[in-house]
Design goal:
By secondary structure, the chain is an alpha+beta fold. It folds into four domains: about 1-55, no CATH class; about 80-120; about 120-225, Immunoglobulin-like (Sandwich), CATH 2.60.40.3710; about 290-300 and about 310-495, no CATH class. It has eleven helices and 21 strands. It has helices at about 5-15, 25-35, 35-55, 65-75, 80-120, 150-155, 165-170, 350-355, 360-365, 435-445, 445-450, and strands at about 125-130, 135, 140-145, 160, 170-175, 175-180, 195-200, 215-220, 290, 315, 330, 375-385, 385-390, 395-400, 405-410, 420, 430-435, 460-470, 470-475, 480-485, 490-495. The strands form five sheets. Strands 9, 12, 13, 14, 15, 18, 19, 20 and 21 form a nine-stranded antiparallel sheet that branches. A four-stranded antiparallel sheet has the order 1-3-6-5, with no helix packed on it. A hairpin with a 2-residue loop joins strand 12 and strand 13 (about 385-390). Helix 1 (about 5-15) runs parallel beside helix 3. It is elongated. The protein starts with a helix and ends in a 51-residue tail after the last strand. Mean pLDDT is about 70; it is low at about 225-340 and about 500-545.
């Protein structure tokens, strides 16, 4: 690192500690700290010094002043006999009264503080990083609560994306602050150039048993790591074609979403994986089973096709999970008419916790199909800037980009193709995907730039769940998230706040008219807007009784 650059950056460290930097200066400082070890050490020294100054004990008065005051009250003053008698009596009485008053005040204060702490609503006071920040990978995540929390309850209600980070990153507590990525043993760096989503569910409790009430979400992007670019170009295997499960009457061609802008230092070309010489286990059976969640629903082998005519393309909407890099607006094909009456099929559990709490989701999805929710074998794999979700019942892979767009490709992988996978050169804690996702990833060379590398070596296999609607499909992951995929080639992700992912208990009851009837008239036209990372504010939860 050049000495001149360090000298220009170091004055910003002191200003940062005083909260005097602009957002641009803060980003420049964090970017420099991510690459300069000397300045990073100086930053830690400044922070330790600030903490030590805040905890200095109060300074007693000089001894000369104390002695002078005592002398004036004793040696230099000669009280009369009456003053001595009345003064002694008054001193005794005043001392007893004062002691009683002080004791009463202390007891009352302790009772008030204890009562306030017990009855006050728990909440999150602040977080480091803030929402939408550009965060150095060496710095841990800090979430500060406004009161003492039940640490076990908070850990149980903590969700982190990418998948696997909740296990890889250590956790510790510093008073009321939860530290993610550091412990007494040592720190673990975050993934480079990656979108993070941290959720604390509303069922987290404080030390007195009070629940948080509403889920809290934080989204931010990490700094890159300088990496040596690979020279081997991946060999495309099968050209991706679109097999949309959620909109069978639409055109078969889906526009490829644009690449997410990323720093050039992090983009490297994935090497061609050498096919494995050993036998590769085959993927789970494609036979799907489904569960009808409403008494009046009749199970059918496939979702009921939706009758919809393509309309004039409109601008894309803003996704829930988004990278901090600026992305371009993509073209979406909305449903021309999607008039949804009161749902006659139950929307329950994890799906219900999102559908009934989000009016925008109800409006865009419309009414559920009569099939209800159903289960199937599935797999999911997180990437630096997106997610891949595969349904083995339809052999379809959903590629969910961080800019809020989605496209589907068929799964054509067989054991004869090889396993693929491996760790790319110069990319710590990142992986080239394997098997099904590897073939889809290498078939499109632009994915290394747009979605990046996988954040774990292996995919997570699970019992997936889905429910079809007039305007899209809901997909469930047992990692605690619901993916809403619209027929407009957009997607959103929400935490499962139902407390149960089995989709058995209605949330809420579907008898009568729901609180918000999903009705869409005419052609929905999303308002084009730049992608903005949502603020770390609580999201609403359903208030009905499961």
């Amino acid at each position: 690192m050049r000495r001149q650059e360090c000298e220009s950056i170091r004055p910003l460290i002191s200003a940062y500690m005083d909260g005097e930097l602009t957002p641009e200066e803060t980003r420049a400082l964090h970017a420099h700290l991510a690459e300069c070890a000397a300045c990073s050490d100086l930053f830690d020294e400044y922070r330790d010094l600030r903490d030590q100054l805040r905890h200095l004990p109060p300074t007693p008065p000089p001894p000369t002043q104390v002695h002078r005051y005592v002398r004036l009250r004793t040696v230099d003053h000669s009280p009369t006999r009456s003053e001595r008698w009345f003064g002694l009596t008054a001193a005794r009485l005043s001392f007893s009264a004062a002691a009683a008053v002080v004791l009463l005040i202390v007891v009352s204060a302790l009772a008030l503080v204890h009562g306030y702490q017990r009855d006050s609503q728990p909440g999150i006071a602040q977080s480091q990083p803030a929402a939408g920040a550009f965060w150095p990978i060496q710095q841990p995540i800090e979430i500060t609560f406004n009161k003492s929390m039940d640490q076990t309850s908070v850990n149980q209600n903590l969700k982190i994306m990418p998948i696997g980070e909740a296990t890889r990153l250590p956790r510790s507590w510093n008073g009321n602050t939860l530290v993610i990525g550091a412990s007494a043993v040592g720190g673990v760096p975050l993934l480079p150039d990656t979108d993070y989503t941290v959720v604390v569910l509303g069922t987290a409790r404080d030390a007195y048993g009070n629940m948080l009430g509403q889920p809290w979400m934080l989204q931010f992007h990490t700094s890159p790591v300088v990496a040596q670019q690979a020279t081997v170009t991946p060999t495309p295997t099968v050209a991706p074609t679109v097999v949309p499960e959620i909109a069978q009457t639409e055109a078969t061609a889906t526009p490829t979403p644009p690449s997410v802008q990323a720093p050039a230092t992090t983009v490297s070309t994935p090497p061609t994986a050498v096919p494995a010489t050993t036998a590769v286990p085959t993927k789970p059976s494609a036979t799907a089973s489904h569960v009808v969640t409403a008494p009046t629903a009749t199970p059918t082998p496939t979702p009921i096709p939706q009758t919809a005519a393509p309309a004039t393309p409109a601008a894309s909407t803003t996704p829930t999970v988004a990278a901090t890099a600026t992305s371009t607006t993509t073209t979406a094909t909305p449903i021309a008419t999607a008039v949804a009456a009161t749902p006659t099929t139950a929307v329950t559990g994890a799906f219900g916790s999102v559908y009934w709490a989000k009016a925008t989701v109800q409006t865009q999805l419309g009414a559920p199909s009569s099939r209800g929710a159903y289960t199937f074998s599935a797999a999911i794999l997180s990437f630096q800037r997106g997610t891949m979700y595969e349904r083995f019942d339809t052999q379809t892979i959903y590629i969910l980009f961080a800019d809020g767009t989605v496209k589907t490709v068929p799964d054509t992988w067989t054991a004869a193709d090889g396993a693929g996978g491996g760790q790319p050169q110069g990319q710590p804690n990142l992986w080239i995907p394997s098997k099904n996702f590897w073939k889809a990833w290498t078939a499109d060379p632009t994915l290394v730039t747009s979605i990046g590398y996988a954040t774990s070596a292996d995919a997570h296999y699970m019992q997936g769940q889905a429910q079809d609607f007039a305007g899209g499909t809901m997909l469930y992951s047992d990692t605690g998230f619901v993916y809403v995929v619209y027929t407009t080639n957009q997607w959103e992700v929400y935490p499962d706040t139902s407390g149960h992912g089995a989709l058995l208990t209605p949330t809420p009851s579907t008898t009568g008219t729901p609180g918000t009837t999903p009705t869409v008239t005419g052609t929905p036209t999303p308002t084009p807007s730049p992608r903005v990372t949502p603020a770390a504010t609580p999201t609403s939860t359903t208030t009905s009784t499961p």
